[in-house]
Amino acid sequence: MLPHTEPEPSRPVWSWIRASPGTHTWLLIIAITSIVVAVSPDGVDHFLFHRNSSNIQQLVKHPVQALIGSAFWIENPASLALYAVLFEVFHASVERWLGTLRWLVIVASAHVVATLISQQLVLTAIQHHRAPRSMAHVVDIGVSYGLAAAIGVLTYRLPNPWRWFYLAGAVAFFGIPLVTGGTFTDAGHAIALSIGLLAWPLTRHPHPHSLSHAHGHGRAHSDRQRVSRET
Questions:
Q1: pLDDT in tens, 186-228
Q2: How far is the C-alpha of 155 from the C-alpha of 164, rounded, in Å?
Q3: Long-range CB contacts (< 8 A, 24+ apart) of 174-179?
Q4: pTM score
Q5: What is the full DSSP assignment across the chain?
Q6: Is the peptide bond before 7 cis (omega within 30 degrees of 0)?
Q7: What is the pLDDT of residue 216?
Q8: Which terminus of the chain has a lower count of CB atoms within 10 Å, N or C?
């Protein structure tokens, strides 16, 4: 894995991408799979979604493939632009702050744990006749569990008092659907957000890149002050 380098003032976009390679690799794969879905004949997209779903059927047959594959597809290719913005705002910010490894641990853990628990809820509902057996085959794909975890852990990046406003907004966004008759997906989002919030110990020592970037801004600011005074 390439080390994070200092931002290049003359190439800010490339610098941003290099500082968050995991986010942009993930986003690139999602863009590719979205194009595949968009150009696929009728019925092929349905097959691809079910083949890569992390529903009960696929988790029983192909657990590893289901958990990994489901993180690289979105049901509506038209939503790609929105997800690109969300990835840049949340995932890239967390990855630059904590480093690729810790970012990956947090979002991957949230994706896996939220998927397994939410599907266990579905299985329990089926067994107790509160849900139809067809729910075992429902499409369960997407990137939202990892995104919810990134939103959660980013809470600790913000200073007070903005941190508390941000946290209240995140809890309301994911919590209200859950307590007003939410689905298993809403439960998964709440679990993933909680995992992000529980990842606080991983935020205690920010990645050296984020520190050096902040120090670099400080040095640049001091240099500008000296220049202004000298002139």
A1: 999 999 999 999 999 999 877 665 555 544 444 444 444 333 3
A2: 8
A3: 174/148
A4: 0.84
A5: -PPP----TT-HHHHHHHH-HHHHHHHHHHHHHHHHHHHSPTTHHHHHHHHT--SHHHHHH-HHHHHHHGGG--S-GGGHHHHHHHIIIIIHHHHHHH-HHHHHHHHHHHHHHHHHHHHHHHHHHHHTTSS-GGGGG-----SHHHHHHHHHHGGGGSPTTHHHHHHHHHHHHHHHHHHTT--HHHHHHHHHHHHHHHTGGGGSS--HHHHHHHHHHHHHHHHHHHHHHH-
A6: no
A7: 47
A8: C
- Distance from C-alpha of 173 to C-alpha of 189, rounded to nearest angstrom: 10
Integer Cα distance of 194 and 29 in angstroms: 26
Q: 103: which 2 tokens?
A: 């970012």
Q: What angle do CA 108, 113, 114 make, to 5 degrees?
A: 100
Residue tagged 């691809």 (tokens):
48
